[in-house]
Amino acid sequence: MSPQGMNAFPEPVDRLVRELQRLPGIGRRTATRLAFHLLKDTDDHAHALAQAIEDVKTHISCCGICFQLTDVEPCRLCTNPARDASTILVVEQPGDLMTFEGTGMFRGLYHVLAGRIDPLAGVRPEDLTVPALLERIDVPEKNARGVRVTEVILGLNPNLEGDSTTLYLAEVLSQRDVQVTRLARGLPSGSQLEFANNAILADALHGRQGVEDGVG
Protein backbone atom coordinates (compact mmCIF):
# COMPACT_ATOMS: atom_id res chain seq x y z
CA MET A 1 0.00 0.00 0.00
CA SER A 2 1.33 3.40 -0.96
CA PRO A 3 2.02 6.16 1.59
CA GLN A 4 -0.91 8.09 0.04
CA GLY A 5 -3.21 5.15 0.69
CA MET A 6 -1.96 4.84 4.25
CA ASN A 7 -2.67 8.52 4.91
CA ALA A 8 -6.21 8.09 3.59
CA PHE A 9 -7.18 6.12 6.72
CA PRO A 10 -8.54 8.05 9.69
CA GLU A 11 -5.90 8.19 12.43
CA PRO A 12 -7.65 5.67 14.76
CA VAL A 13 -7.95 3.14 11.92
CA ASP A 14 -4.33 3.60 10.87
CA ARG A 15 -3.24 3.21 14.51
CA LEU A 16 -5.24 -0.03 14.80
CA VAL A 17 -3.62 -1.36 11.61
CA ARG A 18 -0.16 -0.49 12.93
CA GLU A 19 -0.82 -2.22 16.26
CA LEU A 20 -2.18 -5.34 14.56
CA GLN A 21 0.85 -5.37 12.29
CA ARG A 22 3.07 -5.76 15.33
CA LEU A 23 1.64 -9.26 15.91
CA PRO A 24 3.87 -12.11 14.67
CA GLY A 25 3.13 -13.18 11.12
CA ILE A 26 0.82 -10.23 10.45
CA GLY A 27 1.77 -7.99 7.53
CA ARG A 28 0.24 -4.68 6.52
CA ARG A 29 -2.34 -6.24 4.20
CA THR A 30 -3.56 -8.80 6.76
CA ALA A 31 -3.60 -6.14 9.49
CA THR A 32 -5.76 -3.94 7.27
CA ARG A 33 -8.23 -6.80 6.66
CA LEU A 34 -8.44 -7.48 10.39
CA ALA A 35 -8.99 -3.80 11.15
CA PHE A 36 -11.86 -3.56 8.66
CA HIS A 37 -13.36 -6.78 10.04
CA LEU A 38 -13.37 -5.24 13.51
CA LEU A 39 -14.96 -2.08 12.14
CA LYS A 40 -17.78 -4.09 10.53
CA ASP A 41 -18.20 -6.43 13.51
CA THR A 42 -20.76 -5.78 16.24
CA ASP A 43 -19.85 -3.53 19.14
CA ASP A 44 -20.28 -6.46 21.54
CA HIS A 45 -17.72 -8.62 19.72
CA ALA A 46 -15.20 -5.79 19.40
CA HIS A 47 -15.55 -4.86 23.07
CA ALA A 48 -15.27 -8.54 24.08
CA LEU A 49 -11.97 -8.80 22.18
CA ALA A 50 -10.66 -5.63 23.80
CA GLN A 51 -11.70 -6.90 27.24
CA ALA A 52 -10.05 -10.27 26.64
CA ILE A 53 -6.77 -8.57 25.72
CA GLU A 54 -6.96 -6.34 28.79
CA ASP A 55 -7.75 -9.28 31.08
CA VAL A 56 -4.79 -11.27 29.75
CA LYS A 57 -2.42 -8.39 30.41
CA THR A 58 -3.95 -7.64 33.82
CA HIS A 59 -4.67 -11.05 35.33
CA ILE A 60 -2.22 -13.52 33.74
CA SER A 61 1.23 -14.12 35.24
CA CYS A 62 3.68 -17.01 35.58
CA CYS A 63 3.21 -19.67 38.25
CA GLY A 64 5.83 -19.23 40.95
CA ILE A 65 6.57 -22.97 40.91
CA CYS A 66 6.41 -24.20 37.30
CA PHE A 67 6.31 -20.87 35.41
CA GLN A 68 3.38 -21.75 33.21
CA LEU A 69 0.79 -19.04 32.50
CA THR A 70 -1.84 -18.82 35.22
CA ASP A 71 -4.49 -16.61 36.78
CA VAL A 72 -4.05 -18.15 40.25
CA GLU A 73 -0.97 -18.76 42.39
CA PRO A 74 0.18 -21.54 42.37
CA CYS A 75 -1.35 -22.72 39.11
CA ARG A 76 -4.10 -25.33 38.99
CA LEU A 77 -1.76 -28.07 37.76
CA CYS A 78 0.65 -27.60 40.66
CA THR A 79 -2.16 -27.75 43.23
CA ASN A 80 -3.99 -30.69 41.63
CA PRO A 81 -3.62 -33.71 43.97
CA ALA A 82 -4.25 -36.07 41.04
CA ARG A 83 -0.98 -35.00 39.38
CA ASP A 84 2.29 -36.79 40.18
CA ALA A 85 4.42 -34.00 41.64
CA SER A 86 7.48 -36.26 41.82
CA THR A 87 7.85 -36.23 38.02
CA ILE A 88 8.67 -33.00 36.18
CA LEU A 89 8.58 -32.56 32.42
CA VAL A 90 10.83 -29.66 31.39
CA VAL A 91 9.65 -27.67 28.35
CA GLU A 92 10.76 -24.49 26.67
CA GLN A 93 7.54 -22.47 26.48
CA PRO A 94 3.97 -22.51 27.84
CA GLY A 95 2.79 -23.51 24.36
CA ASP A 96 4.83 -26.72 24.61
CA LEU A 97 3.15 -27.49 27.93
CA MET A 98 -0.28 -27.14 26.33
CA THR A 99 0.83 -29.41 23.48
CA PHE A 100 1.74 -32.18 25.92
CA GLU A 101 -1.47 -31.64 27.91
CA GLY A 102 -3.38 -32.17 24.67
CA THR A 103 -2.13 -35.76 24.51
CA GLY A 104 -3.81 -36.61 27.83
CA MET A 105 -0.91 -39.00 28.47
CA PHE A 106 1.21 -37.11 31.01
CA ARG A 107 0.06 -36.96 34.64
CA GLY A 108 3.10 -35.35 36.21
CA LEU A 109 3.98 -31.67 36.51
CA TYR A 110 5.93 -29.29 34.32
CA HIS A 111 8.70 -26.74 34.43
CA VAL A 112 8.74 -24.02 31.79
CA LEU A 113 12.24 -22.73 31.03
CA ALA A 114 10.93 -19.64 29.22
CA GLY A 115 13.36 -20.25 26.37
CA ARG A 116 16.46 -22.27 25.61
CA ILE A 117 20.19 -21.74 25.86
CA ASP A 118 21.40 -19.90 22.76
CA PRO A 119 24.89 -18.34 23.10
CA LEU A 120 24.64 -16.64 19.70
CA ALA A 121 21.53 -14.81 20.89
CA GLY A 122 23.08 -14.11 24.29
CA VAL A 123 20.73 -16.46 26.19
CA ARG A 124 22.51 -18.13 29.11
CA PRO A 125 21.21 -20.69 31.65
CA GLU A 126 20.80 -17.96 34.25
CA ASP A 127 18.54 -16.06 31.83
CA LEU A 128 16.08 -18.97 31.96
CA THR A 129 14.27 -20.55 34.92
CA VAL A 130 17.03 -23.14 35.41
CA PRO A 131 17.86 -21.97 38.97
CA ALA A 132 14.21 -22.40 39.98
CA LEU A 133 14.18 -25.92 38.49
CA LEU A 134 17.25 -26.90 40.49
CA GLU A 135 15.69 -25.43 43.62
CA ARG A 136 12.58 -27.57 43.13
CA ILE A 137 14.85 -30.62 43.06
CA ASP A 138 17.17 -29.60 45.89
CA VAL A 139 14.47 -28.31 48.23
CA PRO A 140 11.25 -30.40 48.16
CA GLU A 141 9.38 -27.59 49.90
CA LYS A 142 9.89 -25.49 46.76
CA ASN A 143 8.19 -28.11 44.60
CA ALA A 144 4.43 -28.42 44.24
CA ARG A 145 2.78 -29.66 47.44
CA GLY A 146 6.23 -30.16 49.00
CA VAL A 147 6.79 -33.44 47.12
CA ARG A 148 10.35 -34.65 46.44
CA VAL A 149 11.25 -34.83 42.75
CA THR A 150 12.41 -38.28 41.62
CA GLU A 151 12.38 -37.93 37.81
CA VAL A 152 13.03 -35.06 35.42
CA ILE A 153 12.01 -35.56 31.78
CA LEU A 154 13.78 -33.26 29.34
CA GLY A 155 11.13 -32.41 26.76
CA LEU A 156 12.87 -29.72 24.74
CA ASN A 157 12.52 -29.19 21.00
CA PRO A 158 14.64 -31.62 18.93
CA ASN A 159 16.83 -29.00 17.27
CA LEU A 160 20.34 -27.63 17.81
CA GLU A 161 19.50 -25.22 20.63
CA GLY A 162 17.09 -27.67 22.26
CA ASP A 163 19.70 -30.44 22.20
CA SER A 164 22.35 -28.08 23.62
CA THR A 165 20.02 -27.14 26.45
CA THR A 166 19.23 -30.81 27.07
CA LEU A 167 22.93 -31.65 27.34
CA TYR A 168 23.51 -28.77 29.76
CA LEU A 169 20.59 -29.75 31.99
CA ALA A 170 21.61 -33.42 31.90
CA GLU A 171 25.09 -32.49 33.12
CA VAL A 172 23.78 -30.29 35.93
CA LEU A 173 21.14 -32.81 36.99
CA SER A 174 23.62 -35.71 36.97
CA GLN A 175 25.04 -34.22 40.17
CA ARG A 176 21.70 -34.68 41.93
CA ASP A 177 19.79 -37.69 43.25
CA VAL A 178 17.17 -37.67 40.50
CA GLN A 179 16.48 -39.84 37.45
CA VAL A 180 16.95 -37.88 34.21
CA THR A 181 15.24 -39.01 31.01
CA ARG A 182 14.55 -37.46 27.62
CA LEU A 183 11.82 -37.96 25.06
CA ALA A 184 12.21 -40.83 22.62
CA ARG A 185 13.30 -39.73 19.19
CA GLY A 186 10.15 -40.47 17.26
CA LEU A 187 10.19 -36.70 16.99
CA PRO A 188 11.74 -35.48 13.71
CA SER A 189 15.09 -33.81 14.33
CA GLY A 190 15.03 -30.07 13.75
CA SER A 191 11.28 -29.78 14.26
CA GLN A 192 9.11 -27.99 16.83
CA LEU A 193 6.99 -29.76 19.45
CA GLU A 194 3.94 -27.65 18.65
CA PHE A 195 3.77 -29.23 15.18
CA ALA A 196 3.90 -32.84 16.41
CA ASN A 197 0.60 -34.72 16.61
CA ASN A 198 -0.72 -36.28 19.80
CA ALA A 199 0.26 -39.83 18.81
CA ILE A 200 3.89 -38.85 18.21
CA LEU A 201 4.09 -37.00 21.52
CA ALA A 202 2.43 -39.85 23.41
CA ASP A 203 4.97 -42.30 21.95
CA ALA A 204 7.82 -39.94 22.81
CA LEU A 205 6.65 -39.76 26.42
CA HIS A 206 6.08 -43.50 26.73
CA GLY A 207 9.44 -44.39 25.18
CA ARG A 208 11.53 -41.78 27.00
CA GLN A 209 15.14 -42.77 27.57
CA GLY A 210 17.92 -42.06 29.98
CA VAL A 211 20.02 -39.12 28.80
CA GLU A 212 23.14 -41.27 29.01
CA ASP A 213 21.81 -42.94 25.83
CA GLY A 214 22.85 -39.79 24.01
CA VAL A 215 21.17 -36.92 22.26
CA GLY A 216 20.55 -36.92 18.54
In short:
The chain is of the alpha/beta class.
Descriptive overview:
- It contains eight helices and seven strands; from the N terminus they run ααααβββαβαβαβαβ.
- Helices cover 40% and strands 12% of the residues.
- The protein folds into two domains: 3-59, Helicase, Ruva Protein, domain 3; 69-213, Dna Topoisomerase Vi A Subunit, Chain: A, domain 2 (3-Layer(aba) Sandwich), CATH 3.40.1360.
- α2 (11-21) packs across α3.
- Strands 4-3-5-6-7 form a five-stranded mixed β-sheet. A two-stranded antiparallel sheet has the order 1-2.
- Mean pLDDT is 88; it is low at 1-6.
- The chain is an alpha/beta fold and 216 residues long.
- α7 links the parallel β5 (151-154) and β6 (179-182).
- It has helices at 3-7, 11-21, 28-40, 43-59, 94-101, 130-138, 160-173, 198-206, and strands spanning 61-62, 69-70, 84-91, 108-112, 151-154, 179-182, 209-210.
Keywords, please?
two-stranded antiparallel sheet, 8 helices, 216 residues, alpha/beta, Dna Topoisomerase Vi A Subunit, Chain: A, domain 2, elongated, Helicase, Ruva Protein, domain 3, 7 strands
